Amino acid sequence: MTEKLFAFDERNFHECQSTFRGENNQEYYLGEYTIDGGSNINVRADKKAVGAYSIIRLLSKSRLFFRRSWSHIREDATDVTVLWFVKRGSISISHQSGKCTASAGEFVITKSMAPFTMECKTDDQSIHEVLHVVVPSHIFRRFFPDEINAGFCTSVERREFRIAERMLAEVYEDPGDLTSRVEQVLVDSALSILAEGLKNTENSMHERQTLSQKRRQDVLRFVEIHLSDPKLNAEMVAQACGISRRYLSHLLRQHGTSLPNLIWDWRLKTAHEWLSTEVGRDVSIAEIAYRIGFKSPAHFSRLFKRVYKVSPREFRTTKADKVAQPELKEFFVSGPSSIQ
Q1: Strand ranges (DSSP E) for 62-157?
Q2: Is 186's pLDDT higher than 90?
Q3: End-to-end C-alpha distance for the chain, whole angstroms
Q4: Rounded CA gap, 319 and 325, in Å?
Q5: 80, 134, 138, 167: which could join 190 in a potential S-S bond, CB 3.0 to 4.6 Å?
Q6: Percent of the chain with pLDDT over 70
Q7: How far apart are CA 260 and CA 166, in angstroms?
Q8: What residues contact 10, with CB distance under 8 A and at least 6 apart?
Q9: Does 1.10.10 match the CATH number of domain 267-340?
Q10: Which of 12-26, 62-76, 116-130 has the highest mean pLDDT?
Q11: Up-side HSE of residue 12: CA atoms within 13 Å toward CB?
Q12: Spatial distance between the Cα atoms of 333 and 233, rounded to a whole number of angstroms
């Protein structure tokens, strides 16, 4: 079932900047969000959470503007990739590599760790509609190992894109007939199909990576692969990636984080995803802690509670109760941006 992320009209659209990220600022990422004032302001976003993914349908009768700068990235290092399927109207994006416009029937990609500005325009009937999927970037890289241009845009007329879009729409519109496991499989499959379509797209989509970008990708891949190793540390990462510890620290500091923060953040997000699934309810808290690299369940529980405000056991109980009582509002946390 979907839930309302936000709804704005002429009475409350001035509050959009403080509330567009949903309850407790747990969706999207930090930036400047504005709505073009006018006589017919009607903006609504509804969300379907599927594991670590969010599928969101946005409908608007007003022009919308969004800007994410380097200062926003330093303050909120949320690293997600967003896949936009434009249904009506258009999206114009300005980014470091240039500008692009995705019109109805087209597909575009944005990244939260690169600055950009966006303008969402209505069509000739004053309607803007888009279905977009928010994917944590470390998961996105499992399907798209190569770097893709921020702002990459293409038509969804290609068969792979149409199939993927239909699958995502089916998951979004499902009234509750599908299990969470089936929904997860469908979204994963849609991303795999998109990946194949992108590989075969005629126009080049891959960025020319700078050396520092390649080094950062090497670091992220190594950390992801060895996340369950409790001995994972800066010395291991630097040696495996062929860089010094000092350069490793500099590389991550450019993106507003440190290696310990990156590791703990990633581990907690992985635990959160696990505890949110039916499979996770059958695994002990201690086993989850050890599988994701914590040396003790107590340490895991302390950090989890510090970030998510409830213990792992309480969180899992809450999720189970909400499966049994579907009328309750879903508890969704996108995860921390850093851990001290």
Answers
A1: 64-68, 80-88, 90-95, 98-103, 106-111, 116-121, 128-136, 153-155
A2: yes
A3: 35
A4: 10
A5: 167
A6: 86
A7: 40
A8: 39, 41
A9: yes
A10: 116-130
A11: 10
A12: 27
218, amino acid identity: D
Distance CA 267, CA 232 (A): 12
The DSSP call for residue 329 is P
Residue extents of the structural domains in the chain: 3-199, 209-256, 267-340
Query: Which helix (DSSP H) or strand (DSSP E) does residue 245 occupy?
Result: helix 245-253
How far apart (Å, rounded) are the C-alpha atoms in residues 106 and 311? 43
Pair of tokens at residue 283? 């695994």
Residues linked to residue 168 through DSSP beta bridges, in sequence order: none
**In which residue are the tokens 């599988």 written?**
291
Q: State residue 147's pLDDT score.
A: 66
- The rounded distance, in Å, linking the Cα atoms of 285 and 154 is 44
Nearest residue to 150 (alpha-carbon basis) of 52, 87, 84: 84
- Per the CATH hierarchy, to which homologous superfamily does domain 3-199 belong? Jelly Rolls (2.60.120.10)
Range from 200-204, 216-220, 315-319 carrying the lowest mean pLDDT: 200-204
SS3 content of the chain, % helix, strand, coil (to 5): 40, 25, 35
The set of residues, in sequence order, having a beta carbon less than 8 Å from that of 307 and lying 6+ positions away, is 268, 335, 336, 339
pLDDT of residue 204: 39
User: Is pLDDT at 280 greater than 80 in this prediction?
Assistant: no
Instruction: Count Cα neighbours of 65 within 13 Å in the Cβ-side half-sphere.
Output: 7
Please say whether the beta carbons of 56 and 132 come within 8 A.
Answer: yes
Identify residue 100 by its one-letter amino acid code.
C
Q: What is the pLDDT of residues 27-50, one digit of tens each?
A: 888 899 999 877 688 999 999 999
Question: Closest Cα to residue 187, out of 207, 201, 169?
Answer: 169
Q: Name the pTM for this structure.
A: 0.63
Judged by DSSP in three states, 5 sits in strand
Residue with tokens 């500005």: 117
